[in-house]
Amino acid sequence: MEYMTVREAAGKWKISERMVQKYCAEGKIEGVRKFGVSWGIPQCAEKPDISQSVKKKENHTKSGSEIHFCMELMPLMNTAFKPGSCVKMIEAMEDGPRKDIALAEYHYFSGQPERAVIETGRYLAHPNMEIRLSGCLIYSYANLSLGQISRARYALNEMRRNMEDINSEAVPQIGAAKAFCAAAGAVLLHLPLPEKLSPLQTYLPLLPPGLQAFAFYVQAHYTYLKKEYGKSVGIVETTLAMQQEKYPIPAIYLHLVAVMDYMSLKQPEQAREHLLAAWDLARPDDLIEGFGEHHGLLGGMLEAVIKKRWPEEFKRIIEITYRFSAGWRKVHNPDTGHDVADNLTTSEFAVAMLAARGWTNQEISEHMSISPNTVKHYVSMALQKLHIKRRQDLQKYMLR
């Protein structure tokens, strides 16, 4: 029998060499042989039909007439559980990659990136696409929090390469996974969306409920960044109202973007309600990472609500803020050309953010329960550190 190389098969089938190697390793090419470290592929072999393998997957659920894919993509995010039962729920999972990824998710969302990195590092090249994409996404964000920017970039680039290897037009469910991961990776870092990314709305019906909810958070966050605050909060309120089950992780992030919207609309009471709703979901399982990630956008709400009643948790959130923000800026600033303030304390940043949004010193004072003189001091320090003289110039240095 005559054989062709991986490169020859890739050219013949018009797919990447990486995908051919994956098919060989998974036994999806009939008659394939291993010669040392190389694969020999029969000249007569046909390109594997990935759409058939997708249809044969057993780990899917039905919702009406839709068959949901992505049940192994970010499994903890996609699980409805009662607050306080997160760890027990993970422990009850069947041993294997899905459980390992869920545990890595828990460690990341509870502010333990060191453990999340260890747990996901071995899954960056896993043959299961959903496990692989989950591992890359968690690994990139966990390394971002640890200041390991080269590793974070590697995982993001690996995720992009994996998605380019798959024809989402032939398998729309895979397109859903690609769109979800690409949007989450870009929007949450405030980076431009990939040019070839199909609209996430196209794939929403193909995502299971938990990932749908988080996808709506991503969409709401993206809308917030465009300063369409009313539209953004409308997405949040509608998504929360229509949830039949409570998916804590997506719900926490949805509530947090609502806080951002309402603070931008100068409606602090509504913002407070959403912050406390997020806190009620997060605190029983220590899922506090999102609060640290969003600190700069929450308009001093953590200082106004969490700091006094839960001082120890607040200290941990601020530690997460400093750690995540340092890594975030190392990716965001070079990639976008925007200079986001990087040498302000969290209190200075919170006050400067409100000042940039048009809040007066008296309004900031009442909101954060600090004296007007303290507000004035924080604003002065922010101006001094940013080397600007006018309060109006604060906005270009604040998070967008």
Structure characterization notes:
With 400 residues, this protein is mainly α. It has four domains: 3-50; 69-206; 208-285, Serine Threonine Protein Phosphatase 5, Tetratricopeptide repeat; 293-400, Orthogonal Bundle (Arc Repressor Mutant, subunit A). The protein is built from 20 helices and five strands. Strands 1-3-2 form a three-stranded antiparallel sheet. Strands 4-5 form a two-stranded antiparallel sheet. Strand 4 and strand 5 (66-68) form a beta hairpin. Helix 9 (172-187) packs across helix 11 and helix 16 packs antiparallel against helix 17 (311-336). The longest helix is centred in the last third of the chain and has 26 residues, at 311-336. Mean pLDDT is 82; it is low at 51-68. GO terms for molecular function: DNA binding.
How many individual helices?
20
> Going across the major beta sheet, what is the strand order?
1-3-2
Unreliable stretches covering 5 or more consecutive residues: 51-68
Number of strands: 5
Helical percent range? 55-70%
In sequence order, what are the helices and strands, one letter per element? Answer: EHHEEHEEHHHHHHHHHHHHHHHHH
As a percent range, the share of strand residues is under 5%
Please compute the radius of gyration using only Cα atoms: 23 Å
Which structural class do the helices and strands define?
mainly alpha
Sheet of most strands: 3 strands, antiparallel
Mean pLDDT: 82
Overall 3D form: elongated
